[in-house]
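Project channel, design review

CF: Before we commit to the Desulfomicrobium baculatum constructs, I'd like one complete example in the thread so the newer folks can see what an input/output pair looks like. Taking Hpt protein.
RD: sounds good, go ahead.
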Amino acid sequence: MEQRVKEHLCQVYGLGLDDVEELYGLGCQTVVATLGRLEAAFLRSDAQELADAGHMLKGALFNMGLLELGELARALELAGKAGRMEEARAVYDALRPALKFF
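CF: and here is what came back for Hpt protein:
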């Protein structure tokens, strides 16, 4: 998946190798930090934080060209906005294994 993201960053944004590496690293940091926010939000049953973190995750994934995962993050965001915690948890549980490489 790393190669796929780097190719996307190079092709879509026209970046050189150094810039691709930097942007990839920032994207990975964002995903890791956001996963931590999501875990904390679930522990607190904080639907607004779930929505906010889901929104951030969605953006990071879309920017990296991971559209399928970005759509799952969108569903997580929307479930959080609606206060549907069980739905948000189910989406997160489906999304989390795909993000283990971060």
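RD: helpful, thanks. The mean pLDDT is 95.
CF: The chain has one domain: 2-99.
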